[in-house]
Amino acid sequence: MGRVQDKVVLITGGARGQGRSHAVRLAEEGADIILFDICGDVEHNDYALSTEHDLEEAGSEVEKTGRRAVTAVVDVRDRAALADALKSAVDELGKLDVVVANAGICPLGSDQPIDAFANAFDVDFVGVVNTVHVALPYLSAGASIITVGSVAGLLAEKAGPAASMGPNGSGGAGYNLAKQFIDKYTMALANQLAPKSIRVNVVHPTNVNTPMLHNESMYKMFRPDLEHPSLDDALLTFPMMQGMPIPYVEPEDISHGICYLASDESRYVTGLQLKVDAGATVKF
Helices (DSSP H) in the chain: which residue ranges? Predict the structure, then answer.
């Protein structure tokens, strides 16, 4: 216990899924948590996003560990709102040590308009850049910036632009491109901040057991042969993504990596692409 004792951590997309898991894990290890989430839906993203109730619950789970939580409803696409909310949170908690740029969406479907591409890219990449850049003035030597990419995005890049469309449509293409840009951005930023002893790393998960994975649009991507595939249908093909014979990893599996990169155990680790992917990248 105490691996991030008395650190202050900002997590975007913190109301549920991976973000909430990271928040609770880091709080259990001694951190105070700033939780931002949009708490509303984004156009062309078919599955429902978080609610204000979800954000309140996430904050309560952090506080149950004995640590402090500051929550705010913020859209990561709005840099001015992010800056205002972060200033207020830092004023309350006193400092900022770690940034986890986790917020993301994955709108899928072959018949989506180009707006789906724009929305996915704006949330998944521009939102990461906004989060990191408003946080930079508060960070000093020993701080850690962690971005969240995607193994699926990396694999789509290897397969080429045409493959990144497929049944995913415009939204899927925007998602894949955003995650590829996150990877490149993280490596470039790590080089810029290394002389300041601020570390920057990216975590690339495979399929994760969250609402982003469990919706009909995602099931259809894995089972395009069916008009309305169910979870049971998708479970037959989910394991094809990984080298290990599993359908997906759990949010906690990603949180373990986040905790390591947030802690001083990784004080000399920067520019790392941490792939929590059950062998997906080596398989393909």
Answer: 17-28, 52-64, 79-93, 114-121, 127-135, 151-159, 161-165, 169-193, 216-222, 231-235, 251-262, 280-283
Phi, psi of 122 (to 5 degrees): -65, -45
Give the CA count within 13 Å in the CB-facing half-sphere of 183: 18
| Strand 98-101, strand 273-276: pairing | unpaired
229: left (phi over 0), alpha (psi -120 to 50) or beta: beta
**CA 280, CA 162: separation in Å to the nearest integer?**
20
Known catalytic residues are: 175
Altogether, the residues listed in the chain come to a count of 284
Q: Output the CA torsion sign for 215, 217, 223, 225.
A: positive
Write out pLDDT tens, residues 108-137.
988 889 999 999 999 999 999 999 999 999
C-alpha torsion sign, points 42, 151, 247, 260: negative
Q: How much is the pTM?
A: 0.95
